[in-house]
Fold this protein.
Amino acid sequence: MHKLKAVVDFLENQKLVLATAESCTAGLIAARLAEVPGSGSVMECGYVVYAVEAKRRMLGVNQQTIDEFGLTSEEVAREMALGALERCGADVTLADTGLAEAEGELDGTICFACAMQVKGRPEVFSETLKFPGERNEVREQAARHALLSLERYVGILRGSPD
């Protein structure tokens, strides 16, 4: 819990409000942050978008992006993060899409994206990681990774990765 408290403290200190756009974690990023007392002051909203149509309608993910790169891609995660940023009042967004339960080598592959306004322009950073374990273990690891990486993501987006 103390590591997640540090995420809330970071957001408070930076005067940032967070929104999430989650596919494979189905709201776990927002739920884990909400476990921290005081987190309500740094949370705007959370989108849970499993279906293709939900990603398109709620976050503006382009069907061509889905067709070209697939649902489990950084390109889709990036469009999810940017779509959430555009559609709500948050300062920073975290998005993910991936396969927590699949056959083959893509099992456990999660794509993350973080977006925010930098010097008046929307910027986005993304990465793909693979997590071991069963479905819900992968989802939990992905949610924690997203939250614990937020400070690093914001640093990268602002041009100072340290």
In short: The helical segments are 2-14, 28-34, 52-59, 63-69, 74-87, 135-157. The chain has one domain: 2-157. Residues 135-157 form the longest helix (23 residues).
